[in-house]
Amino acid sequence: MRLVVVGPGALGCLVAARLAPVACGGLALLDHRPERARLIEHQGIILEAEGQSRRVDLAVSADPPSLAPAEVVLLCVKAPALPVALHRIRPLCTPETLLILMQNGIAHLAVTAPGGATIAFGVSAEGATLLAPGHVRHAGRGKTWFGFLADATVAGQRKLEQVAGCWRRAGFDARVCDDIRERIWAKLLVNVAINALSALHGRSNGQLLVSCALRVRMTEAVREAAAVAVAAGIVPPADPMALVARVCRATSRNLSSMLQDVRHQRPTEIEAINGAVVALGQHLGVATPVNARLLAQVKALEAGYATGGAGAGPDADSPPGTERHGG
User: Fold this and answer.
1) pTM of the full predicted structure?
2) At what angle do helices 274-284 and 212-231 cross, to 10 degrees?
């Protein structure tokens, strides 16, 4: 089973480095920048995990047709890059291809597969820190779930089970589930609580729990998102804030990917997370003023990039090697 991992960000590099040695049919990493692809292919991926560092050699390309066709494509780009990435991977995809979307938020749930590929979804709580191009630290362990939103063919189900098995051989806790939509929404609630507030205030996940004021805003944002979930026919976790607290404690030293994006003046996933809650809330008649405010504040940070005004809290000038959570 030949796999192509798309996107050499934190999650993409972590997944590629872990899976490459155990992918029986081979694995390649697809980048959109030729110079970075050449760099990573020359140096390999440097993986730091459990106090050790090792180099993982693998094929890296910026030319999708050279990797076609792919049996499985793991799409690990962030939500803002998804439309362009879907267009670029079209040469990889055939009706026999399994395309697995790993984005945060819920905007990707409506994607149409290129090339007639079968779409599946993945949700991972693995933590990763991108220290430099092709240099990643495995920053935290978590479960990974895969599943289909609709009925899949027997061949598609078998292939997804093979993917989960490959992840397990690589040391991940991964499995296929029947309720992937609910698991995507559960992660959305966690992202709603953590990402925007961490980006706005420059706080690690654990620090968010220390501030009473921030805990109140987290709770209010999650309560709104859970209400939207219920209105949409989704069964949210029984106690979503307990789930958020567990994630914050388990990744207490880590910084969210949204804070990483703000500090490096990159587009964030705010539209796919809080923005998606606001948009769906408007459609379903559920008020979401706290999420609307968070959306506006992060968009204002992004607008400040051009003027050099972007920053995130009192420690916004922390070095780029600071711990971050892959979500």
Assistant:
1) 0.90
2) 50
